[in-house]
């Protein structure tokens, strides 16, 4: 005879998942996860990847600490974007690590986008010698939307400069978010040079196969590369990477996935992780390049924020 549980697993769609992941605690949780990962207090093995039809991929990313365990599963079908359909779909199943009890099912694309933006925000805060008030976003997709929303919500950035493939794309992006972002000044640009004129940092959020930034950048400009996530992609020019200090969110993942760094043949012994800089004063000289590839540990950080939001509401 088989018993049946009567408990209903809470399922949160994209909007509800976003509401469970407020920006400020999410940034703090990511920093805590970086320290915990360095100290060996959480486990997050390399993600599993299976090929799917039409160039798709099925990704599985587990992570656990003494409190929570999760599995994020995602399907990625790049060809769907041409038909106006979502490229990424998936869920994050969160369980109690102590007894295995399922706790919630979160929307994976939303969680991924917001924790990725939180990693960027943490990098801006930690790696810059002065508060970053003006940021250029290169891209108008889902990650750009998440970055604009998270940076605006934190209240540290006062001006966002958006660059799209076309002026029309940048204008549509700015129009979509103008009312939502409130006090943040949002400006659309048709040319990158215009966006960088007053920006203290630039965040690249494309899936380009070739560099989208010029080789030379002002020494004080902090460069954050987010969009390139395979060895074949490269948003950042090799000359820039060779001229600057390079910081990554997760070194093991960057070695295999950061096409920018792989194609530039960076000297990995000189690459540091963001966790190395969390409790240190920013170094002088030219601003570094911060490259992120993501990690299941950052998903676990987001799950902790969502769990706390649920238990305190």
UniProtKB/TrEMBL annotation:
GO terms for cellular component: cytoplasm. Its EC number is 4.3.1.12. One of its GO terms (molecular function) is ornithine cyclodeaminase activity. The keyword Thylakoid does not apply. Keywords: Lyase. Coiled coil: none annotated. Pfam families: OCD_Mu_crystall. PANTHER family: KETIMINE REDUCTASE MU-CRYSTALLIN (PTHR13812). This is Ornithine cyclodeaminase.
